Amino acid sequence: MKQIFCGFMTLLLAFGISACSVPEKAEVGEQRIFRITHADSAGRMFSEIWTTLKLESLGMREISSEYFDRAMHISDSRFSAISVSRLLTEFALKRGEDAVLLNCFDDYQGILSIADVYRYDLWLATKIKLVSESSKPDWLNPLLILVPDGQQPPFQERFMTANIRELKFVRLNDYYAPLEKIAGTSPKAQEGLEVFKNNCLFCHSLKGRGGNKGIRLLEVYDFSYKFDQMRMLGDFKNFHHKNNLDKQDVEQFVTQEKLGRVIDYLKNFD
Ligand code: HEC
After folding, report:
1. Which of 66, 108, 150, 251 has the highest count of CB atoms within 10 angstroms of its CB?
2. Each residue of 11-51: pLDDT tens digit?
3. Which residue among 203, 227, 231 has the greatest number of ligand 1 atoms within 8 angstroms of its CB, and so is best to mutate?
4. Ligand 1 centroid vs 34 CA: distance in angstroms?
5. What is the pLDDT of residues 80-96, one digit of tens each?
6. Residues 47, 51, 52, CA angle at the centre, nearest 5°?
7. Cβ neighbours for 55, distance < 8 A, ≥ 6 positions apart
């Protein structure tokens, strides 16, 4: 179809009719204003308003991300983005903050440790250009966390946060503390908590942590019953598969075994 269209454009040009410029890629999402929340010198939490332009002035680059394309089952996406480690140099973190909480417009709540930001050289996209706009789900808007090409973090939902409205500096231990307590000393439950933290919590909140894009799993399933455990696994497969209409293919990030560990963890809630 594209070829036919281009042929038609060439024909127009041949007849000396000026052609409108045809963008190679459809840009999605709008320019947004967002907040960066951190403690001021007196320790009070304080929100700065940032614009896309101000962010881009830190050193914007055009990049691609095979990691993003793979998770979205698309190819050749392009981004205008800035380095998160460059952004971090703008803030003096004096209260032991070691993570960035990512609050999103769609009730998704991401979180990245600052160690991961440096380890994988994570970027933040202010513009997203897809080959076809029809492959864009509603939630895919800037700001978007990106794994740049050449970096290979584990394949997880964690590195896919989009639609960000606020970046907030927090302490990882404080954030996860209520969830760690529930895991206790069981290695299986602890492993399950890690899987949940890396792939599920962003949408299925627990103990006031995480997002509420999805349902609260503990309200729908009683994990002390085998029947409910199996029902959860079935519902997960029916919803989070690769053809999910909203591109929420979470199944690609977890094995059946890892889901078993998630159940070992969720069983500990009373
Ligand atoms: C991007 C957000 C997101 C992530 C990440 C996510 N989910 Fe979901 N999940 C949803 C939404 C949205 C639904 C469907 C709507 C609903 O039932 O709330 C859903 C549905 C489900 C269902 C089916 C519920 C039902 O009533 O049919 C299960 C089970 C589930 N998720 C488990 C998980 C597990 C386990 C993980 C991590 C391995 C996970 N989800 C990760 C958003 C997410």
Report:
1. 108
2. 434 433 333 344 445 565 565 789 999 998 888 899 999 99
3. 203
4. 27
5. 999 999 999 999 898 99
6. 135
7. 82, 87, 124, 126, 143
